């Protein structure tokens, strides 16, 4: 049996794909779908999120983006939803806009780089940008359209994954993993659960641990044995194994609009800070996101929200008219080279599916396929073995 530690979009996707293959799986998480996946905007934007040093990340992102339509259709079917549109999967592209001469020059360089990689991008004047998105500020002087970029609502995706797993009968144990169990040879053989208490929700009948679990006197499982433990605990992964993952805080805001302000994702650099706006089908507009190295701090701050709104208003002045629906801070799992850490670790019995940084939602389908043993060449790009310290 596989035990998946972490029920964010990555852990849930891995569990769902493995369960669909007929593998016995148990998921463990004290609060499923409440971490970075709950905060995420859901951009499936390998092209517009790339930078010059990140060609391998671009390859991973492009490969995962190609999987998204099939992944979403199968997920919707397994979750009992009418279709992939129930996940708000849209593929109308990203428009990256520029204001000043420096930003325009950066867009030119990016466009040349993309063309070299034969990626679909279109360089636009300010007027052409406003023709596509009339709510853009008059001061926008140019843009780069990545027509193939897509996005999805991550909250709908994780809800669908939970529903699909429930329908497949996959146990979900609402508990925190205190440590990985190891045998005398160092092999990982399961997980030890922290005792219930505090705010940890109790288990429901559908979350009965597997027969491989041992119980405390009160009936609550204290350990779950596994052939393989898959660590998908995002920024918390480093607390359980030697993996170079650190929290990168992102504050994000959801605004509500009676009429959609935008038809596609819009991003730009304002005062040297990148900002993006992601429109949902129901009129919601997601504005994100700060990038802060603050450790495990998930406070939403006045300064963070001020910067988001100030920068978003430069791009689309009309945002200040909208109702604030939600503000949240999440912790991205960052790695030293910005690439995820996916696959068998140096320790027998332990696999990793973490370190997705800004791309957890985008990379979830590819991550699941790598954990299923597919994708040798792409798997090599994110293999844990590239870090000496991993065990
Ligand atoms: N993928 C966007 C972000 O992490 O803010």
From TrEMBL:
Keyword Oxidoreductase: yes
Coiled coil: none
InterPro entries: FAD-dep_OxRdtase (IPR006076), FAD/NAD-bd_sf (IPR036188)
Highest taxon in the source lineage: Bacteria
Biased composition (Low complexity): 200-215
Residue ranges of the TM segments: none
Keyword Oxidoreductase: yes
Domain FAD dependent oxidoreductase positions: 3-371
Region feature Disordered, mapped onto this chain: 185-220
Keywords: Oxidoreductase
The protein's name: FAD-dependent oxidoreductase
Biological source species: Nonomuraea helvata
């Amino acid at each position: 049996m596989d035990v998946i530690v972490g029920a964010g979009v990555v852990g849930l996707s891995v569990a769902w794909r493995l369960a669909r293959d007929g593998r016995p799986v148990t998921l463990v998480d004290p609060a499923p779908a409440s971490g970075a996946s709950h905060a995420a905007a859901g951009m499936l934007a390998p092209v517009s999120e790339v930078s010059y040093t990140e060609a391998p990340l671009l390859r991973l992102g492009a490969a995962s983006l190609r999987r998204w339509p099939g992944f979403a259709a199968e997920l919707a079917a397994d979750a009992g939803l009418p279709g992939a549109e129930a996940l708000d999967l849209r593929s109308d592209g990203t428009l990256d806009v520029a204001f000043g001469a420096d930003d325009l020059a950066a867009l030119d360089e990016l466009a040349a780089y993309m063309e070299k990689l034969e990626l679909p991008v279109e360089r636009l004047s300010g007027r052409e940008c406003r023709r596509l998105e009339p709510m853009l500020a008059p001061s926008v002087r140019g843009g780069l359209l990545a027509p193939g970029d897509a996005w999805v609502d991550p909250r709908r995706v994780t809800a669908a994954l939970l529903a699909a797993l429930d329908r497949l009968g996959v146990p979900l144990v609402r508990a925190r993993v205190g440590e990985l169990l190891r045998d005398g040879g160092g092999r990982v053989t399961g997980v030890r659960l922290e005792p219930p208490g505090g705010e940890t929700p109790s288990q429901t009948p559908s979350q009965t641990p597997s027969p491989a679990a041992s119980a405390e006197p009160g009936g609550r499982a204290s350990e779950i044995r596994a052939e393989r433990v898959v660590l998908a605990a995002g920024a918390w992964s480093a607390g359980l194994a030697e993996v170079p993952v650190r929290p990168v805080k992102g504050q994000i805001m959801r605004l509500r609009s009676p009429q959609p302000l935008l038809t596609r994702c819009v991003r730009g650099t304002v005062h040297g800070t990148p900002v993006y706006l992601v429109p949902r089908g129901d009129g919601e507009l997601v504005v994100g996101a700060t990038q802060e190295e603050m450790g495990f701090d998930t406070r939403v701050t006045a300064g963070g929200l001020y910067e988001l709104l100030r920068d978003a208003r430069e791009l689309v002045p009309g945002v200040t008219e909208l109702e604030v629906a939600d503000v949240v801070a999440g912790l991205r799992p960052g790695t030293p080279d910005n690439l995820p850490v996916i696959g068998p670790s140096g320790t027998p019995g332990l696999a990793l599916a973490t370190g997705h940084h800004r791309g957890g939602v985008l990379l979830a389908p590819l991550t699941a396929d790598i954990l299923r043993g597919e994708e040798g060449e792409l798997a090599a790009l994110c293999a844990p073995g590239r870090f000496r310290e991993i065990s």
